[in-house]
Amino acid sequence: MSCHPASSKQRDYADSLVEYLEKEQHRSATRYKAKVDGCDCIAEMSGLIDKMKKLREEIQEADNATKYRG
After folding, report:
1. Closest among 12, 54, 17, 18 to 34, alpha carbons compared
2. d(CA 51, CA 33)
3. Quick one: pLDDT at residue 1?
């Protein structure tokens, strides 16, 4: 089964999520960057984006928890 190529908007969003993970020094940032760079399938890219969004939410929740502890 063939897969439609990822859109430029989707690729840009995935790149911005990778940049966020790199900025936060997440241990999987390099792995996700390689996966995004090598991904040409819209469905596969969508899955990567979902995983990176979940990681971003976890990082933000941890940051917020740290702020509230003072």
Report:
1. 18
2. 13
3. 52
Euclidean distance between CA atoms 67 and 46, whole angstroms? 31
- Give the mean pLDDT of the chain: 93
Residue listed under structure tokens 């430029």: 8
Question: What DSSP state is assigned to residue 66?
Answer: H
Interatomic CA distance for residues 36 and 31, integer angstroms: 9
At 5-37, the pLDDT tens digits run 999 999 999 999 999 999 999 999 999 999 999
- pLDDT the model gives residue 42: 96
- Distance from C-alpha of 51 to C-alpha of 12, rounded to nearest angstrom: 16
Q: Is residue 15 a contact partner of residue 36, using CB atoms and an 8 Å limit?
A: yes
